[in-house]
């Protein structure tokens, strides 16, 4: 099979958000798999920080996540997000004031506003290691990050252009309306104790439900996850081809940055 290069008019873009477990490091390998499938619509049922979509730059993309706040931010980027740059201050007192204000917007049913999108960007860049964590009330509870310097973006117009033909959804992955030739890439939360990236947990039963849903898709499917024993068994039992990779560890509470074993699983390529 001839591997096609990315079109020169659609260069990869860096993700606008910091995201725990982001797959920017995996994009070169995924680009090899994607080559020859550029005619397909790329579908990410758990899109997170959208590093893969921005690395591949498909002409058509369906990006879904159960977390409404990153999706709201992307939708506002698509329509043209602007906000006062004076809000971008790397200061602990202001961080907690704006975190409280963001949670007030959620409580008042105003989480889909442009103000909420701007605050979410600020909290994401200023908070601890780009974590996105919510309590059972749906309140953002990530602490201040204590970064020495932060490079807040001043111009988001490149994303407005990139997102023009992309569709953003928020909901459970099984509710997505798929085409038989869609190219699916899924990157679920790791099989670890902490899975609370949204108000709802992503449990082991959700891992099983996801792999079974992906396994039923007749088109190409790519899946990445931490290579735990039960994940490897689950994916092999569903007929996926397994590739093991060493993934960089970006976030660690104990300072350990040694690489972590990751699985790249494929089917119907």
Give a short overview.
The protein is of the alpha/beta class. The chain is built from 8 helices and 7 strands, in the order αβαβααααββαβαββ. β4, α7 and β5 form a beta-alpha-beta unit.
Molecular structure report:
The protein is α/β, with parallel strands linked by helices and 269 residues long. The chain has a domain at 24-72 and 156-267: Rossmann fold (3-Layer(aba) Sandwich). It has eight helices and seven strands; from the N terminus they run H-E-H-E-H-H-H-H-E-E-H-E-H-E-E. It has helices at 27-34, 51-56, 68-79, 92-107, 114-126, 157-162, 204-215, 229-237, and strands at residues 42-44, 61-65, 166-170, 183-186, 221-226, 241-247, 260-267. The longest helix has 16 residues, at 92-107.
Question: How many DSSP E strands?
Answer: 7
- Summed up, the helix count is 8
Q: How much is the radius of gyration in Å? A: 18 Å
- Judging from the principal axes of the Cα atoms, what is the shape? globular
CATH level 4 superfamily of the domain at 24-72 and 156-267:
Vaccinia Virus protein VP39
Q: What is the level 1 CATH name of the domain at 24-72 and 156-267?
A: Alpha Beta
Helix fraction bin? 25-40%
**Structural class designation:** alpha/beta
Are there runs of 5+ residues with pLDDT below 50, and where?
A: 1-8, 251-256
* Name given to the CATH architecture of the domain at 24-72 and 156-267: 3-Layer(aba) Sandwich
Q: What value does the average pLDDT take?
A: 90
What is the third-level CATH name, the topology of the domain at 24-72 and 156-267? Answer: Rossmann fold
- Beta-strand content bin: 5-15%
Q: Walk across the major sheet and give the strand order.
A: 3-2-1-4-5-7-6
Series of H and E elements? HEHEHHHHEEHEHEE
How is the main sheet built? 7 strands, mixed
Distance between the termini: 12 Å
């Amino acid at each position: 099979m001839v591997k096609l290069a990315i079109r020169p008019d659609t260069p990869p873009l860096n993700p606008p958000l910091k995201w725990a477990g982001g797959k920017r490091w995996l994009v070169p390998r995924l680009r090899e798999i994607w080559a020859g499938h550029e005619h397909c619509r790329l579908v990410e049922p758990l899109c997170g920080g959208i590093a893969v979509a921005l690395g591949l730059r498909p002409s058509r993309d369906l990006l879904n996540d159960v977390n409404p706040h990153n999706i709201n931010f992307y939708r506002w980027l698509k329509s043209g997000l602007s906000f006062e740059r004076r809000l971008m201050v790397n200061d602990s007192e202001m961080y907690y004031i704006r975190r409280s204000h963001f949670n007030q917007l959620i409580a008042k049913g105003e989480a889909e506003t442009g103000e909420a999108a701007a605050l979410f960007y600020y909290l994401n860049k200023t908070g601890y290691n780009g974590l996105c964590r919510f309590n059972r009330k749906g309140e953002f509870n990530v602490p201040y990050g204590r970064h020495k310097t932060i490079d807040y973006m001043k111009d988001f117009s490149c994303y407005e252009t990139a997102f023009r033909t992309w569709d953003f959804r928020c909901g459970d992955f099984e509710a997505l309306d798929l085409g038989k030739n869609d190219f699916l890439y899924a990157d679920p939360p790791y099989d670890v104790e902490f899975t609370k990236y949204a108000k709802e947990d992503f449990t082991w039963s959700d891992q099983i439900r996801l792999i079974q849903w992906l396994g039923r898709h007749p088109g190409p499917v790519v899946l990445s996850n931490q290579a735990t024993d039960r994940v490897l068994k689950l994916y092999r039992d569903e007929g996926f081809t397994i590739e093991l990779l060493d993934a960089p560890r970006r976030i660690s509470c104990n300072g350990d940055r040694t690489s972590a074993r990751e699985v790249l699983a494929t089917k119907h390529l």
